[in-house]
Design a protein that fits this description.
2 copies of one chain form a homodimer. A 3-stranded antiparallel beta sheet of chain A has the order 1-3-2. Chain A has a single domain, classed as Orthogonal Bundle (Arc Repressor Mutant, subunit A). Helices cover about 60% and strands about 15% of the residues of chain A. The first copy, chain A, is elongated and about 65 Å long. Chain A is of the alpha+beta class. The longest helix of chain A is centred in the C-terminal third of the chain and has 32 residues. In chain A, a hairpin with a 2-residue loop joins strand 2 and strand 3. Chains A and B meet through helix 1, helix 2 and helix 5 of A and helix 1, helix 2 and helix 5 of B. Chain A binds a DNA duplex (30 and 30 nucleotides) through helix 1, helix 3, helix 4 and strand 3.
Chain lengths: ~110, ~110
DNA sequence: ACATAATACTATACATAGCATAGTATAAGA
DNA sequence: TCTTATACTATGCTATGTATAGTATTATGT
């Protein structure tokens, strides 16, 4: 899938993954496996950005002697998702236009 | 609308606008007016990029003493649109996942 | 015992696309 | 004569996704 098309969506996808329960980097990648292929180099910067934005909060839990960084979604993060859903409707307008123009050609 | 979300779509939107008939910069902006707000600083670079990619061809027509640059879509440009439509289905998967996780929370 | 895979994260650097801003230049209308 | 519409070019910024590499521990396989 074209990287450009993912822009703006991956971030929100990560937020959505944290709606059910708190999670950490490695686990998030796995839980999103069926939805989208997201690599470490994409996810970790997103997590840091979202924390800076206050869309996420983090806390560390010791696991096998190392710290696992858990993230939980904030109210602001949930607002962010709602804005995305609204924006996506506008994107659908663009998509529909494109699909329509192609069909016209076929007819 | 969030600029990031438009990435990858505007370019194809311009291609789609040229499916019916050849057109030029200023006119394209107008014809896309109802679909998406695209400014000159966005459109003209797109047109040049698409011509370099060979998704568009151009020719100049004199109009009131100045040259108007008309663009027409190539076969490669039409292929490009088809790829976009496929890619968009994957994006819909992401969107559906996000919408689903939000709903779960409401229930 | 040793190698490999899985786990878990950090850091650097890059490409791309959309967009703001500014500049150039002509024609038409108030 | 001033503004608006027309039509395009050029420079530079920012955000996001991604490749690559590095670090370090645990579990598994041979």
């Amino acid at each position: 899938m074209d990287a450009q098309l993912k822009k703006g969506s991956l971030e929100v996808c990560v937020l959505a993954a944290l709606m059910k329960q708190d999670s950490y980097g490695y686990k998030i990648i796995q839980s999103l496996d069926e939805v989208v292929d997201i690599s470490e180099s994409t996810l970790y910067p997103i997590l840091r950005r979202l924390e800076q934005n206050e869309c996420l909060q983090s806390y560390s839990v010791e696991h096998n002697g190392r710290l696992r960084k858990f993230y939980s979604i904030t109210d602001k993060g949930q607002e962010r998702i709602k804005e995305y859903l609204l924006d996506f409707k506008e994107l659908m307008n663009i998509y529909n236009y494109i699909a329509r123009e192609v069909k016209k050609d076929v007819e």
